[in-house]
Amino acid sequence: MGRDQNRHRSADVPRWEITVPSRPGRLPGLAMAGFSDQANEHLDVAFLPHPAVSVIFDFSDYPFVIEDGCGSQQRERVVAGLAPNRARGRGLARSSECLQLRLSPMIARAILGASWELDGMVVALDDLWGREAVRTQERLREAGSWEDRFAIAEAVLARRGDAGRAVDPEVTFSWGQMVASRGRVRVERLVAETGWSRKRLWSRFRAQVGLTPKRVAQLVRFDHAAHRLAAGHSAAWVAADSGYADQSHLHRDVMAFAGMTPAAVAASPFLAIDDVAWPPKRASGR
Questions:
Q1: SS3 for 164?
Q2: Does an H or E element contain 37, and which?
Q3: Nearest to 273 by CA among 4, 25, 43
Q4: First to last CA, the chain
Q5: 59 HSE (CA, 13 A, CB side)
Q6: Which of 69, 133, 176, 229 is the right S-S partner for 129, CB 3.0 to 4.6 Å?
């Protein structure tokens, strides 16, 4: 499949042209998408929590401001940790281009050199990589195509991942079970299958992933529910399908993660382009 065939324009959000890699990458746990927009329009979109760490390189003349609920504001080279607190992107979409990378927490720790410090936060990539963040952005900006950018980004991340600290196999196993079960696996089962004590699993998972096992399970379940809502299913059906006790339970969880109602999540511009930019069969953490 050629690169042009991988370019998409969402019917719900027509402004963005989205480019995804023409072939699967070589780095497990990495998903990439390029966004471009030639319209002179203001952007103000809420980012919904997703079970991945996001890295954004903005090549625009007027870079977007990405902020979280704690008042942190970053631009150009930004990292959003797991379940960022009320994160939003704001700015003028004037001939804008940006590359977004989604990293599974199983590789994010080695690549970024940070884990729990990113819990719910939006930070500058420069604070984690130093001058390499600027040099990488310059190489990406000068690249001749999105495919070149994808190749450069993957090579940089792979090199940093090889030099970083790997996640414990028991943590990787537990993460995989949570994703496969859509957040419905019991911690007691993970304790039994890893052979660790509950305290050790809790501690090591929190240190290496950035969230507790319980919080990750909630995040994965929320992500599944949010996509079902965006697909047009009723809140009652989504609650039952996603393992919530009832519709009120779904409502509380959605409000806690996204700060909006299930109906608002279903209409979110962020989700309108999500499966276009991150095809479910390729995206990490799905």
A1: coil
A2: strand 30-37
A3: 43
A4: 23
A5: 22
A6: 133
Contact 151, 23 (CB under 8 A): no
Nearest to 100 by CA among 50, 161, 142, 173: 50
- Segment 248-279, tens digit of pLDDT: 999 999 999 988 899 999 988 888 888 888 87
Provide the β-strand partners of residue 46.
88
Q: What percent of the chain has pLDDT over 90?
A: 58
Which of 284, 282, 274, 285 minimizes the C-alpha distance to 35?
A: 274
Q: How confident is the model at residue 118 (pLDDT cuts 50, 70, 90)?
A: confident
> Is a pLDDT exceeding 90 seen at residue 130?
yes
Q: Residue 246, SS3?
A: coil
| CA 124 – CA 139 distance, rounded (Å) | 18
Whether residue 120 contacts residue 68, with contact meaning beta carbons closer than 8 Å, is answered with: yes
Q: Which residues of 205-243 are buried (b: 16+ CB within 10 A; e: fewer)?
A: bbebbbbbbebbbbbbbbbbbbbbbbeebebeebbeebb
Helix (H) or strand (E) holding 267: none
CA distances from 101 to 42, 52, 86, 255, 266 (A): 23, 9, 19, 26, 24
CB 103 within 8 A of CB 126: no
CA 159 – CA 129 distance, rounded (Å)? 13
Q: Would you state the structure tokens that stand for residue 81, as one six-digit string?
A: 């940790």
CA distance linking residue 62 with residue 173, whole number of Å:
42
CA distance linking residue 92 with residue 66, whole number of Å = 12
CA distance 114 to 209: 9
Which regions of 136-177 does DSSP assign to beta strands (E)?
Answer: none
